[in-house]
């Protein structure tokens, strides 16, 4: 303990540099993890955090709400499949809106004809809509009481919504999102696209009957009805276009960064150990047990990693509440703990090489000399 | 040696290799003034070998450093080979060392990843190859032969014995044909037989070239090989 | 300098580990850069291929191509703006496509049908006839070949691929380039509510003089009903582009900083080991400058080797990544940029050792 700390104090510069590089790497890893989570959530939060276990799109839509279109026949066909309980018609469009007195912005407006199906799972404020024109909005974009004015295209009729509740992580396609009823959503869509047919249904939300598993129901629906794609909620989220790509890309990035940390740490301690070999030999010669030297090394490794992680975390915390463009980052304690543990374990593993070197020291070499030219 | 850098020039026997007059070196340590060298008067003739003897802490290291253009004195005058280096800047001292002084240190002398020949050439290379590369190499090989190391020219220091390493160091010190060579405890790491060999070699080489030398030493045998012994005590030397 | 190089050659072992780490960081930089380039290329190809100076949208669309609608009369006004030499309409429709021999497949290909008048680079000045399209070459990753027919959308509207063109993707999808008539016909069949017989979504404009001036003239000529952007501005305005660019560049920047710290760390350790050697060298007349230059030379060589290894690994990654899985485009300029950044970081990182080299006192070599 004394040995380890004294050395660190005397040669603090290099330990600071090492802890510094670990800190930067930890910051990068945490930041990118948060970025990935935020990206995925901002794309499909609305799908992942609504209450319908099964969603049916038209197959041409490639799992995008807005591109999906189900006709009467398909809807009836889905409703007729065994195991299908309650269903709700889902209507979605993207409009230009003004929130309160703010600037013009885009908003995705999602409507359902069953107020208990395809609605946000939980609210973070306010209440659920109880009348036409009321909506629940994504809590990073809206506040309870906001009046949202839909800006019509030429030939369209203006309409507006009132935000009565807000919910966390319900964005769709990185856009401010409102959940409302189908009539209101259709009106909003007509405002920006007056030529669109009035009773367009984008997707069907399905509640399986009691005792029926969502996963098996999706297969049955697809077999029974032509040109539809039925997905469980989780699949609809993770297999949405772009999400898979984002996750694959980040996987490679994390792998590379995660490798750099133990490599830098391991190299540092190996060089240190080699440079100290004469002092270490001396210590062994005057009676220090190998365990003492090993403990000293491990203590330093853990200390550097812990400090590096702490500093990296401290750098990340203020960033974690920012937005990257329109993406709100979020601080996830579990993620931090998992990464911190993984990096400490990797760092300790990397120190094994130095450990071996320390254990191989033969105290007799103190007397035989060697070195020095 | 008046006005030249000592590169291959004839040594005129009149100008002393070293003249220190009233040299004093002090350091400021906090509020106190530490006296490393109190008062040094020392003259070394152009082909003289002087043994410098004194207990540790007597200032002999400081004296050698000043004589070897490693340090500037706080007071007094230092003239090496006819050139007054008292007021030289750090850069001028560096240049002077490279061209006019030779060193053989006590422990670390050689660059561990260079061969014996390359260690001799390192001075020339550090000077940016102002001279003729072929001439330098020829000179290195000649020195190695004189020192009995021709067959070891391509060996790394790790492959040489203690005595051989010392001889390479001597060769390196002589490469730039200095007027003055400083030896710091050249025999302390060697056994008596080897030590005597090395000292004899030093004397032969110095005398052959007519180069002056100051040898810092504890070793009584060395004083026998020197022309003169000078004692330094408590920072004071008269010689 | 020679000294430094000789040490590298004679004792490569001590530099191997630093080289390995820097190579890893180099791969990281190149991968990140390639990812960014791939994303950007895949979003902006259709625009970068345009041989024009200005792109105009309807102002109410707020720079969103799918929302924009420009009727014939506005187009005529724009065409009359001073300096304008040519105006072409552009219309797009995002559709899922099926190969004609698998009309019932669930494996759809995401495409964007683009109707054009003024030809982008690589496309014929006369658009293909009704029902024919020229496809972006990336579509071959989905098994589609020239001469195949694709069935578009739920209505399975057939279009025949009569040619291929490179690097014209838009919004992450392979583009199908056809005449405006083809675009209108398909839109009418698939999305009747969106079709407009005389309108286009955007105008592609060629003009004399500076693009900025041309853009403002177009806006003036249409009394602000059109928003005109230079081609570069239009590319930046494509959704996601500027965000991706700034986010990735920030991450790349911090990674370069990591490289800097790693180099500083490594050379700090190595310099400490060499203190006595530096003392001797200074004593025999080496200046601090020479010794430090040696450190820099070693850093540069180590980094150059690491960058080369990194580039090799990045190229391997490029080959290993199946086309279409993640957007990845490794260009020579990206490799060179990453290597350059690494070299700069490396040289700056060395500076941390400068003080220690300066501080070595040659006098300490005596009596050591």
Descriptive notes:
- The complex is a heterotrimer of chains A (373), B (239) and C (368).
- Chain A has 373 residues and is an alpha+beta fold.
- Chain A folds into two domains: 2-43 and 243-368, no CATH class; 46-233, no CATH class.
- Chain A has twelve helices and twelve strands.
- In chain A, the strands form two sheets. Chain A has a six-stranded mixed β-barrel with strand order 2-3-8-5-7-6. A two-stranded antiparallel ribbon of chain A has the order 11-12.
- In chain A, strand 2 and strand 3 (104-112) form a beta hairpin.
- Chain A is elongated and about 95 Å long.
- The two termini of chain A are 33 Å apart.
- Chain B is an alpha/beta fold.
- Chain B has one domain (18-238): P-loop containing nucleotide triphosphate hydrolases (Rossmann fold, 3-Layer(aba) Sandwich), CATH 3.40.50.
- Residues 1-9 of chain B have low confidence and may be disordered.
- Chain C has helices spanning 2-10, 13-48, 72-79, 180-190, 211-221, 231-237, 241-273, 275-283, 288-320, 332-359; strands spanning 54-58, 84-99, 109-116, 132-136, 149-152, 157-165, 174-179, 202-207, 226-230.
- In chain C, helix 9 runs antiparallel to helix 10 (332-359).
- A six-stranded mixed beta barrel of chain C has the order 2-3-7-4-6-5.
- Chain C has two domains: 2-44 and 241-365, no CATH class; 47-237, no CATH class.
- Chain C is 50% helix and 17% strand.
- Chains in contact: A-B, A-C, B-C.
- Chains A and B meet through loops of A and loops of B.
């Amino acid at each position: 303990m004394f040995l380890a700390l004294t050395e660190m104090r005397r040669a603090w510069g290099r330990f600071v540099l090492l802890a510094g590089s670990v800190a930067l790497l930890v910051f990068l890893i945490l930041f990118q993890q948060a970025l990935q989570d935020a990206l995925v959530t901002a794309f499909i939060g609305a799908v992942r955090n609504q209450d319908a276990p099964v969603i049916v799109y038209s197959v041409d839509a490639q799992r995008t709400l807005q591109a999906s279109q189900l006709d009467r026949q398909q809807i009836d066909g889905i409703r007729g499949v065994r195991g299908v309980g309650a269903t709700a018609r889902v209507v979605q469009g993207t409009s230009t809106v003004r929130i309160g007195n703010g600037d013009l912005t885009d908003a995705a407006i999602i409507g359902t004809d069953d107020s208990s199906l395809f609605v946000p799972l939980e609210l973070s404020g306010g209440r659920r809509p109880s009348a036409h024109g009321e909506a629940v909005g994504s809590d990073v974009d809206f506040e309870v009481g906001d009046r949202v004015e839909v800006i019509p295209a030429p030939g369209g009729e203006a309409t507006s919504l009132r935000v009565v509740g807000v919910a966390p992580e319900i964005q769709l396609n990185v856009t401010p999102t409102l959940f409302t009823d189908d009539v209101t959503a259709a009106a909003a869509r007509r405002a920006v696209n007056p030529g669109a047919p009035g009773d367009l249904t984008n997707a069907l939300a399905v509640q399986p009957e009691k005792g029926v598993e969502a996963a098996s129901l999706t297969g049955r629906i697809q077999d029974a009805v032509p040109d539809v794609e039925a997905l469980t909620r989780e699949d609809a989220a993770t297999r949405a276009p772009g999400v898979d790509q984002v996750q694959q890309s980040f996987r490679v990035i994390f792998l590379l960064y995660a490798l750099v940390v133990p490599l830098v740490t391991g190299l540092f301690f190996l060089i240190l150990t080699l440079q100290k070999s004469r002092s270490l030999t001396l210590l062994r010669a005057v009676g220090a047990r190998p365990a003492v030297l090993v403990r000293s090394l491990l203590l330093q490794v853990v200390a550097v990693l812990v400090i590096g992680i702490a500093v990296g975390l401290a750098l990340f915390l203020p960033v974690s509440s920012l937005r990257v463009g329109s993406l709100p980052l979020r601080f996830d304690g579990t993620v931090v703990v998992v990464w911190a543990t993984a990096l400490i374990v990797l760092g300790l593993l990397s120190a094994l090489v130095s450990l071996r070197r320390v254990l191989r020291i033969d105290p007799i070499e103190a007397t035989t000399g060697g070195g020095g030219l | 040696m008046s006005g030249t850098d000592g590169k291959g020039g004839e040594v005129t026997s009149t100008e002393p290799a070293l003249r220190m007059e009233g040299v004093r070196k002090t350091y400021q340590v906090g509020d106190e003034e530490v006296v490393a060298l109190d008062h040094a008067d020392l003259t070394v003739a152009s082909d003289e070998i002087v043994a410098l003897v004194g207990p540790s802490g007597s200032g002999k290291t400081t004296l050698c450093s000043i004589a070897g253009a490693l340090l500037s004195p706080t007071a007094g005058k230092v003239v090496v080979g006819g050139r007054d280096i008292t007021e030289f800047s750090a850069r001028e001292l560096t240049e002077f060392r490279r061209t006019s002084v030779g060193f053989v240190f006590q422990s670390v002398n050689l660059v561990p990843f260079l061969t014996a020949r390359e260690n001799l050439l390192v001075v020339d290379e550090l000077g940016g190859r102002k001279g003729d590369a072929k001439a330098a190499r020829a000179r290195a090989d000649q020195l190695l032969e004189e020192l009995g190391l021709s067959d070891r020219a391509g060996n790394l220091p790790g492959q040489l014995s203690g005595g051989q390493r010392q001889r390479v160091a001597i060769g390196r010190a002589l490469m730039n044909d200095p007027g003055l060579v400083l030896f710091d405890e050249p025999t302390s790491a060697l056994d008596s037989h080897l030590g005597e060999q090395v000292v004899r070699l030093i004397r032969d080489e110095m005398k052959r070239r007519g180069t002056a030398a100051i040898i810092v030493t504890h070793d009584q045998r060395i004083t026998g090989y020197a022309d003169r012994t000078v004692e330094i005590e408590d920072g004071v030397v008269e010689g | 300098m020679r000294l430094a190089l000789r040490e590298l050659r004679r004792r490569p072992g001590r530099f191997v580990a630093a080289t390995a780490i820097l190579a890893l960081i180099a791969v990281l930089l190149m991968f990140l850069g390639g990812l960014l380039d791939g994303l950007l290329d895949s979003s902006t190809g259709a625009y970068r291929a345009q041989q024009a100076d200005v792109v105009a949208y309807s102002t109410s669309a707020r720079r969103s191509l799918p929302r924009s609608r420009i009727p014939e009369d506005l187009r005529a006004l724009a065409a009359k703006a001073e300096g304008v030499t040519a105006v072409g309409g552009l219309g797009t429709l995002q559709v899922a496509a099926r190969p004609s021999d698998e009309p019932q497949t669930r494996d759809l290909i995401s495409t964007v049908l683009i109707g054009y008048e003024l030809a982008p680079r690589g496309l014929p000045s006369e658009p293909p006839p009704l029902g024919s399209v020229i496809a972006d070459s990336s579509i071959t990753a989905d098994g589609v070949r020239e001469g195949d027919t694709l069935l578009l959308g739920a209505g399975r509207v057939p279009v025949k691929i009569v040619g291929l063109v490179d690097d014209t993707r838009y919004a992450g999808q392979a583009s199908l380039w056809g005449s405006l008539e083809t675009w209108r016909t398909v839109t009418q069949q698939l999305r009747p509510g969106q079709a407009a017989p005389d309108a286009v979504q955007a105008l592609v404009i060629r003009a004399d003089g500076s693009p900025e001036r041309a853009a403002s003239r177009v806006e003036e000529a249409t009394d602000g009903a059109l928003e005109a952007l230079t081609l570069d501005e239009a590319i930046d305005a494509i959704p996601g582009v500027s965000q991706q660019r700034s986010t990735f560049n920030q991450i790349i920047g911090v990674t370069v900083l990591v490289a800097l710290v790693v180099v500083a760390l490594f050379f700090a350790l190595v310099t400490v080991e060499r203190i006595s050697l530096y003392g001797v060298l200074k004593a025999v007349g080496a200046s601090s400058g020479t010794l430090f230059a040696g450190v820099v030379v070693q850093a540069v060589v180590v980094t150059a080797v690491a960058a080369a290894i990194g580039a090799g690994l990045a190229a391997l990654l490029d080959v290993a990544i199946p086309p279409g899985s993640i957007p990845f485009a490794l260009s020579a300029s990206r490799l060179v940029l990453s290597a350059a950044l690494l070299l700069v970081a490396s040289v700056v990182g060395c500076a941390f050792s400068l003080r220690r080299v300066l501080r070595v006192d040659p006098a300490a070599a005596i009596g050591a």
